[in-house]
Amino acid sequence: MARKIFIGARIFDGERFHDDKALIVADGRVEAIVATNDLPDGETLTLAGGVLSAGFIDAQVNGGGGRMLNDEPSVASMEIIVQGHRPYGTTSLLPTLITDTAEASIAAIEAAIEAVKGNRGVAGLHLEGPHLAPARKGAHLAELMRPVEDRDVKAFIRAREAIGTLLVTIAAEQVTVAQVRELAEAGVTVSIGHSDCSSEAAEERFDAGARGVTHLFNAMSQLGHRAPGLVGAAIDHPSTWCGIIADGHHVDPKALRTALRAKRGEGRLFFVTDAMSLVGSEEDSFTLNGRIVRRERGGFCSKLVLSDGTLAGSDVDMISTIRYGVTYLDLTLAEALRMATLYPARFLRLADRGHLSPGARADLVHLTDALTVTATWLAGEAA
User: Would residue 58 show up in a list of annotated catalytic residues for this protein?
Assistant: First the structure.
């Protein structure tokens, strides 16, 4: 049995910290967390303080390392995107295809089927469109948006069976309650987003099995005192999970702090980056569906905008969202780490990731006390 022993850092197991303990990894899986005076035989890796945690999980990554998935929906693109985010602590992610042609969606599904087999960080696929609402299009192309048809439901179910984890963002206006129920019962993770729906319409789809909301507050009907909208429904519904973009541009921290305090039930808020190709790249612009997106430097991190000023994804990485959470959202370090590990794993039903319980994948990240990433491991091997 190939055993590795990690010592020298505080260990965060997904729920709580362990001090003066060692993490034991055997054959790519967590074996135990034990006292440092009770170590088994194995290769010892001594870390210079800081925190050892499960690797970060990102459910919404449009690009990285200079590549957008939409530019080339291929295994090679997915591998480049994964490599672009790994220096920032992300060990599992869902490459995300934003609204595009049917051909692009088919190519992304075929690529994801192969990429997940490599077991190098692609944990599934996120299709954000084309079943979105033109009224809340954001940076997506409205002319490509359309309602979900029965053939789409069948295609999603086949893709989920082949890939393992499939997340689809759909506007409530573009999908029936019956279609949501059929998708959810087949294991497809349905998230409501880019929607101008009423709170009642959202709640009907949550009750039918829609599991989450895509980038809470952004591109959706807002919270009003008589019309709570999608924002109000998401915060109030107990089983609904909500991704948030914590970059200082997409949502004011006061709104995020309010949502964090108000969210009820098992569903929680969790971090997503919604990152574009410039994360892990030194370029200052890229092309999205034929339009130039430019990087504007300043603030907590740079922001990405179209020529009319519309935000077009983010320029944030996962470790930065954790720093933002601790600095601006009044989060403890433990809760900020959960929002990048345990909570997205639970939302995506990745049962063996996001925590360091016995049997979990030994996907790990080591952080300094200043919350910078020093190293990552995939299944116990340096990555």
Answer: no
Region of 343 please: left (phi>0), alpha (psi -120 to 50) or beta.
alpha
Phi, psi of 161 (to 5 degrees): -65, -35
User: Among residues 274, 315, 317, 363, which one is catalytic?
Assistant: 274
Cβ neighbours around 254 below 10 Å, total: 10
123 contacts 350 by C-beta, under 8 angstroms: yes
For 287-312, give the DSSP string: EETTEEEEEE--SSS-EEE-TTS-EE
Please give the DSSP secondary-structure letter assigned to residue 154.
H
Give the model confidence (pLDDT) of 289-346 as tens digits.
Answer: 889 999 999 889 999 999 999 999 999 999 999 999 999 999 999 999 999 999 999 9
* Residue that has been written with the tokens 């998708």 in this structure: 183
pTM: 0.97
CA of residue 263 relative to chain centroid, distance: 19
Residue 114 is inside which H or E element, if any? helix 102-118
Read off the tokens for 13: 């197991």
The CA distance from 95 to 123, in Å, is 8
